[in-house]
Amino acid sequence: MAERLNFNLELFEGPLDLLLHLIKLNEIEITDIPIAEITKQYMEYLNLISELNFEVASEFIIMAATLMRIKARLLLPQSELFETEEDWEDPRQELVERLLEYKKYKELSIHLTEKLEAFQDTFSRDFTLLDDTYKKGEIHIVHTDLFNLLSAYKKILSRLANRLPEEIEGEKITIEEKEEHIITKLRYVNFVRFSELFREARSKNEIVLTFMALLELLRIGNVKVQQENMFGEIYIYKNESDNSSQNAVNTENECENLETTEIYNN
């Protein structure tokens, strides 16, 4: 099993981010959250993260417990908890207030970041306001977030996993091999669609390793991902701006003599 990965995402803050993602995904109002369904989906994402062997931060576990508690309270008859209807308080209220407050500050943060980037472009090329250095052991995702990647990965699993075996006997695939395969593809094309990465997968194990390879390449800064619109297709690009990405250069040199047909049928 691969080592655990630490996340440091530009648009990723914690469990409230995941809840906002699910609310957008389901096109529901924050003030009227269907707790039972949201709790179910929240737990599915936590299970997905655990299956990928990523460490789940404690605040995600606490939020899961909070959702379960709210769900339990909503299932209980009000008469068992309150004498009159006027005494009843919606157990979702505190969570709703936290989400609304968080959403407000997140939107403000995004707005200020966009302003800062626009302002940055007015200076000479050697003037930088932001440190874009990739820190070892952390994943940086550009123009999309972890939950959109997980959503896309979840769709791939739903579409392919039932038609593919868990693993193939004698199958020996490593994350490193999948990383090399992705980098090799990007040597000959401007971008690769997320869904194309899994087109040749022959087992669920290969799907998992391919996704983990993509995240590893994001972690070390060899690639970046972009998304045209919310929940739309995700595109993977080679990170041209990362001059320190020696791994990508080495991989390209090793692939100098490969034929194009061999690349796409690896």
What count of domains describes the coordinates?
2
What is the count of β-strands?
5
CA radius of gyration: 22 Å
Give the neighbour order of strands across the main sheet. 3-5-4
Task: List the total number of helices.
Answer: 10
Q: Which structural category fits the helices and strands?
A: mainly alpha
Which whole number gives the mean pLDDT?
75
Structural commentary:
The protein is mainly alpha-helical and 266 residues long. The protein has two domains: 1-130, no CATH class; 141-266, Structural maintenance of chromosome 1. Chain E (Arc Repressor Mutant, subunit A, Orthogonal Bundle). It contains ten helices and five strands, in the order βαααααβααβαββαα. The protein has a three-stranded antiparallel sheet with strand order 3-5-4. It has a two-stranded parallel ribbon with strand order 1-2. A hairpin with a 6-residue loop joins strand 4 (223-227) and strand 5. The two termini are 23 Å apart.
